[in-house]
Amino acid sequence: MNTFLKISLGFVLGVVCTIGVLYIIAATQNTEENRLREEIRMKALKKLNQSFGDSDIDENGQRNIQSFELTTKKGIVKLHTYMSKDSVKILMGRPQSTNINNYGYNDEVHETWKYKGSNKYIDEFTIEFINGKLKSVSQYKE
Questions:
Q1: For residue range 50-66, what is the model confidence (pLDDT) as tens digits?
Q2: H or E segment at 112?
Q3: Which chain regions cross the lipid bilayer (predicted)?
């Protein structure tokens, strides 16, 4: 009986040690893979940042996104920076006036859309785009 307990205990300890070693190997291998993936991702984001020339991207590759809530005749419209012009047009409708400027030194196209609000004589909303992406929104209030 004593021999059976020794063999059983040895078997259980062997299985536990084997599982522990395999877990440690898997954890270190996974950590190395994640580190390499993160390094590749950061390099790609830095290249992308340099190619677009966006100054609003921080060192972690995250954009500074701001949101805007506009009270229009149709109700409350939520916009955020970097929205496309098409998305804004779907939410706000066609603008009453537009202004486009092409600055050659940065190859940036600045576009300004103006919308009338409840006062038909004053442009209540001014929406600015740079290269087709929403940059800022201003609302005139009396």
A1: 655 555 555 555 567 88
A2: strand 108-116
A3: 7-26
Q: For residues 99 and 110, what is the distance between their CA atoms, to the nearest angstrom?
A: 8
- The structure tokens 């006062």 sit at 119
What is the C-alpha to C-alpha distance for residues 2 and 113, in angstroms, rounded to an integer?
89
The position carrying tokens 């496309």 is 84
Token pair for 47: 């290249």
Beta bridge partners, 126, equal: 114, 138
| pTM, to two decimals | 0.53
Integer Cα distance of 87 and 101 in angstroms: 21
Distance CA 23, CA 36 (A): 20
